[in-house]
Amino acid sequence: DGERASVGGYYITPLNALLYNSNVDNLGEHGIHPRITHLLVNLPMLFGPLAFFFYADVAAIIAGGLLPRRRKNRTRNQQQRRDISHNNSGRIMCRRAVMSGLFVLSCAPHQEPRFLLPAIVPMVVLYGTDMTERRRWLQKFWILFNTLLLIFFGLLHQSGVVPSLLASNETASTHGSGGPALFLYHHTYMPPSFLTRTKRGSIEGKEAEQCTEDKSTCLATSGTSFSGHIVIDVKDANFTFLQFAMNVALECGIEEFGESEVFLVAPASAQILPPFLSVGMLPAISLVDYHRPHITTEDMPRWDGSVGTYVSKLQIKTYRIRCSSQRI
After folding, report:
1. Is 137 exposed, middle or buried (0-12, 13-18, 19+ CB in 10 A)?
2. Whether the Cβ atoms of residue 162 and residue 192 lie closer than 8 Å to each other
3. For position 158, what pLDDT does the model report?
């Protein structure tokens, strides 16, 4: 994590956040993005037509700085009359807030759209009137844009992760051997594992979170109860790492600590069979549950010429993987 900035024992959260997100080594597991991702991708994705008004505003400011002095004064006067005409003395402050915030956030190599959410208020203050009063067709486009993105990000994108977690108890009791089960999430966003716990429990003094690191002890302890399943996010791990994770989790051939099964949750478009073809002990893989719709933009299904087949692949699947006596 590195050293944290503090004054008199008090940590400076904004500064620490900037220092952490500016370190490429810290962000390796979160994802590295180009510095212009916020400006060219996240801004229009979040704010739609408002972003293009912002682009025009910035272009006018830059052009005003490059024009001859007489023309610059004319441009500045037009801008001032525009601010006064909207009867809002805070427009300049809002514009500078968006520009400064965008600049600071763009300095970090990890850039997620949610980081720009605080800009929604100044963006609406600056350009909302332009769309609702001067250009009626833009108002309709703005409504359509937000409706479509609400459906996509609110109902379709990664939408199978939470239902699969909520169904984990039923999945484990129906297809498992009883007791706490291990769920590996592959090629999904980080699963909120607290949804699998009904109450906070412990095994020999070990809290639920510690069980993810000391799994064999937690699962091997008899006469105790565990209030939730173990959920591990393997992210977009390659085949080699996934194979290693499955070997450690299944522990085939080690009866005293070997788990009887592991549940792997992954999009239907993800390749999950190749990692197990060289394990040495062929696991028995079976599909036990699925949830749809589920869209993973990072791992979209391949187009095979059929709309129905393509849509049917937009789901997340839960596989039960067990050790098998059949050797390769």
Report:
1. exposed
2. yes
3. 93
Q: What is the pTM (predicted TM-score) of this model?
A: 0.71
DSSP for residue 284: E
The per-residue pLDDT for range 109-161, each reduced to its tens digit, is 888 899 999 999 999 989 888 777 767 788 888 899 999 999 999 999 999 99
Measured in whole angstroms, the distance separating CA 264 from the mean position of its chain's CA atoms is 19
Q: How far apart are CA 212 and CA 237, in angstroms?
A: 17
Give the three-state DSSP class for 4.
coil
- Give the burial class of 225: count Cβ atoms within 10 A of its Cβ; 0-12 exposed, 13-18 middle, 19 or more buried: exposed
Residue 77, pLDDT above cutoff 50: yes
Find the helix packing angle between 69-85 and 49-66, rounded to 10°.
Answer: 150
Q: How far does CA 82 lie from the centroid of its chain? A: 40
CA distances from 87 to 84, 253, 269 (A): 5, 76, 53
Q: What does the pLDDT average to over 52-75? A: 74
Chain position carrying tokens 């699962």: 219
Distance CA 27, CA 32 (A): 7
Residue 8 tokens read as 């008199």
Going by C-alpha positions, the residue among 232, 239, 235 that lies closest to residue 263 is 232
* CA 213/CA 258 separation, integer angstroms: 16
Greater confidence, 73 or 220? 73
